[in-house]
Design the sequence.
């Protein structure tokens, strides 16, 4: 088996609306894959096709070597899913919902459930309708993480969680990875993806616009440099690959394209550098660049 | 005070806009109910003699429990008949409408968090509940006007007609007041409407017991707001003052709700929610168990309600048979197929309960739809549960529950008949006659399932079949319609009493149709996209 999950040229329309338009996505076994995109980009639709809840119009989809529509039951025994908007049965307690979902998947582990309940500080005796959004999310997370499965499919799993619980969640994902599980994590919390994921796919309007490891993606974009210099840095701005140069007293800040880094650093050295700070591009910048293009395109078309 | 009502008028307009379909249906249906009674009763009971036969039928405790205290039985005019027999069945829907309306616009709004959004705008503290009450006032006024007009269309006395119309509207308002109180007590809309509906049920029971205890009603009757319209004695010796009780209770409940609302936060209730078990019972491990768990309370409620109702109607069998012997129209209803009137009566009752149970079956199958819309189905279908197993579990549960309810109803009618003087053998006969209606009930389950599979949005249209079957099943014999029209109802193909009239062929055909529809529902659901939230 080469991939835990592979999607090729996936198309899905709802009536006139094209939700997915030739999407590609790969998750390698044992890796944590980030799935990023703005609201309405098609993340949840993709995940529901992966689960066999929606049927693909065309394209190739394989999850754990199985076809999600035809082999749904066999596949679901081997994966666990956390929906983006968790809605619990109002008259079942959280504990009952967790047990039910685990048993329907084919196996429950009471010790693992107890441990997770404690770590997520969740009271399992409350009725489903009395939980807050964050606590509903925790119920779904405990039900998924308690399962001994090969693949976790998580649709914005931390929405509604407080920062403390986000940390607990991140530990759990790290443990899952150490145990050899593969994870597909859809999110728009970039810091989370940056911390957890081996690879990232950015999708927009139903299509993958960037995909690769974080290192590969960073290569595509710019480094931010902040330096204190003796001489006036005016000529830097004229160099190819330098963007957004700003000067405050003797501190200069600018972004530089990766392939132009060497000549720019040489030129900077000639100015007499007293302090230097270079920051790799954050995922946020990657994301904003993709998203920013879209905003520009919208303005042009408007 | 003035400030706390800021924006009330806007909220009233907003609520009317949101309920622009619901309320006209409720109000119109109640008005039509009255119009129906006013136009059909005179055709069934043409002469004073026939009406007196009816009056004698009403003069028994069990009949009183289902109708009214029995004013005017000595001279049973159309007006007296309507007040005694129809008004209760129009006041109860008005009460239900008012309960749902008030809870929908108060507690349900708070529970979903929409109230927070509204209250954070320039809206007074009491604007929302006051707006809900004003909307309830408008709707109940509509009911009062329509029912009055319906009675006037039958040339009934103007003053008494107005009294009945206002009486029905005021009864609705009393329960609107009750619902504003229950909406303060609990955090959850369903619990708030259940509590208020329990008060409606309690009022129904108190009136039934009180009126059955003494002709004209006893002290116990006066404890029930549902008794007060009939105590106005319209068309017999009209008196207005019982109406003041309705006004007073509405005022008291609204005042009480006002006092309670000052003691709680937005979104909170006065009764704290209870905790449950931390682990699921071992049995809760299949989709069937989940379906049962979801419907458990409803099933218990239906069983108890149907059983009580069945015993009450069963005990009427003796007096109905007597009455039928004297009225040609009654004979026409109860002995349509050349049956003995007693057999005709039991067959009618079996049909009636089968239709009620088919209504239960539709609500149960439609839960599939709400499970799908809320995302519960998504959570279950993302586990190792196939779509076939999931939908089959729900449909299987619904079929089993319907069979159980048919059994309970048949047993109830039989026991009631025995208490009314029939021989013990009748229990087994009535039981079998009622259970014979399982195939048409499963046809209804199958139709709802097929609609759900093909186009989930249209599944609710299955209700039309029940309305159709009810109308032609209950009144078809009177309307003298062509057979083809009535035969469209799956309930119209059985003659269940006496038992040797039951034919195998219709049962087999109905079962085959039911199986085909269930199959269509299952396969179409397996093939379509899940309708996710």
Sequence:
């Amino acid at each position: 088996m080469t991939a835990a999950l592979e999607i090729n040229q996936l198309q899905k329309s709802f009536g006139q609306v094209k939700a997915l338009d030739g999407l590609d996505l790969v998750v390698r076994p044992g890796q944590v894959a980030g799935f990023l995109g703005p609201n309405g980009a098609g993340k949840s639709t993709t995940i529901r096709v992966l689960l066999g809840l929606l049927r693909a119009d065309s394209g190739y989809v394989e999850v754990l070597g199985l076809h999600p529509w035809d082999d749904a039951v066999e596949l679901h025994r081997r994966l666990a899913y956390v929906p983006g908007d968790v809605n619990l049965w109002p008259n079942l307690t959280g504990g009952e919902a967790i047990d039910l979902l685990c048993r329907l998947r084919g196996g429950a582990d009471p010790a693992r459930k107890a441990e997770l309940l404690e770590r997520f500080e969740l009271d399992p005796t409350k009725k489903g309708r009395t939980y807050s959004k964050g606590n509903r999310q925790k119920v779904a997370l405990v039900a998924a993480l308690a399962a001994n499965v090969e693949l976790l499919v998580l649709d914005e799993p931390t929405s509604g969680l407080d920062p403390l619980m986000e940390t607990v969640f991140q530990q759990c994902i790290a443990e899952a990875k150490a145990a050899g599980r593969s994870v597909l994590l859809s999110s728009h919390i970039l810091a989370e993806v940056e911390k957890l994921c081996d690879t990232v796919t950015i999708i927009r309007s139903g299509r993958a616009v960037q995909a690769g490891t974080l290192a590969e993606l960073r290569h595509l974009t710019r480094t931010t440099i902040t330096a204190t210099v003796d001489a006036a840095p005016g000529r830097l701005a004229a160099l190819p690959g330098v963007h957004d140069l700003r000067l405050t007293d003797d501190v200069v800040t600018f972004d530089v394209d990766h392939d132009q880094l060497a000549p720019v650093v040489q030129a900077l050295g000639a100015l007499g550098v007293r302090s230097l700070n270079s920051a790799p591009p954050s995922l946020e910048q990657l994301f904003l660049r993709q998203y920013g293009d879209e905003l520009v395109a919208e303005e042009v078309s408007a | 005070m003035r400030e706390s009502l800021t924006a009330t008028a806007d909220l009233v307009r907003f609520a009317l806009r949101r309920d622009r379909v619901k309320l006209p249906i409720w109000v119109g249906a109640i008005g039509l109910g009255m119009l129906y009674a006013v136009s059909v009763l005179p055709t069934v009971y043409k002469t004073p003699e026939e009406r007196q036969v009816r009056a004698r039928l009403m003069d028994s405790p069990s009949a009183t429990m289902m109708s009214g205290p029995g004013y005017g039985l000595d001279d049973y005019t159309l007006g007296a008949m309507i007040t005694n027999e129809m008004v209760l069945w129009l006041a109860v829907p008005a009460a239900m409408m008012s309960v749902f309306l008030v809870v929908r616009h108060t507690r349900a709004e708070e529970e979903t968090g929409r109230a927070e959004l509204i209250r954070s705008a320039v809206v007074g503290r009491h604007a929302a509940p006051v707006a809900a009450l004003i909307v309830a006032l408008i709707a109940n006024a509509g009911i009062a006007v329509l029912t009055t007009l319906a009675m006037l269309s039958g040339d009934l006395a103007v003053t008494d007609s107005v009294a009945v119309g206002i009486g029905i509207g005021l009864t609705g308002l009393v329960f609107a007041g009750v619902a504003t109180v229950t909406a303060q007590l609990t955090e959850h809309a369903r619990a708030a409407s259940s509590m208020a509906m329990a008060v409606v049920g309690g009022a129904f029971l108190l009136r039934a017991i009180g009126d059955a205890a003494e002709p004209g009603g006893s002290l116990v009757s006066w404890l029930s707001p549902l008794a007060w319209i009939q105590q106005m004695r319209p068309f017999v010796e009209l008196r207005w003052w019982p109406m003041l009780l309705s006004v007073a209770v509405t005022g008291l409940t609204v005042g009480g709700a006002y006092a309670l609302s000052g003691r709680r936060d937005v979104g909170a209730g006065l009764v704290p929610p209870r905790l449950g078990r931390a682990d699921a019972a071992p049995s809760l491990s299949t989709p069937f168990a989940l379906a049962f768990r979801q419907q458990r309370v409803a099933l218990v409620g239906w069983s108890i309600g149907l059983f009580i109702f069945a015993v009450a109607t069963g005990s009427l069998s003796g007096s109905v048979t007597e009455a039928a012997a004297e009225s040609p129209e009654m004979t026409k209803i109860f002995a349509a197929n050349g049956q003995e009137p007693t057999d005709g009566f039991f067959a009618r009752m079996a049909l009636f309960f089968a239709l009620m149970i088919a209504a239960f079956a539709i609500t149960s199958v439609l839960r599939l739809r709400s499970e799908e819309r809320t995302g519960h189905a998504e959570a279950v279908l993302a586990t190792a549960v196939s779509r076939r197993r999931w939908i089959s579990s729900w449909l299987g549960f619904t079929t089993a529950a319907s069979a159980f309810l048919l059994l309970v109803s048949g047993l109830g009618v039989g026991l009631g008949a025995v208490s009314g003087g029939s021989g013990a053998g009748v229990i087994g006969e009535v039981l079998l006659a009622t259970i014979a209606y399982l195939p048409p009930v499963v046809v209804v389950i199958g139709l709802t399932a097929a609609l759900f599979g093909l186009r989930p949005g249209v599944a609710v249209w299955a209700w039309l079949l029940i309305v159709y079957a009810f109308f032609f099943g209950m009144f078809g014999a009177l309307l003298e319609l062509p057979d083809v029209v009535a035969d469209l109802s799956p309930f119209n193909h059985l003659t269940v009493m006496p038992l040797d009239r039951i034919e195998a062929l219709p049962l087999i055909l109905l079962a085959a149709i039911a199986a085909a529809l269930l199959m269509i529902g299952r396969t179409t659901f397996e093939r379509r996209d899940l309708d996710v939230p």
Notes: The mean pLDDT of chain B is 87.
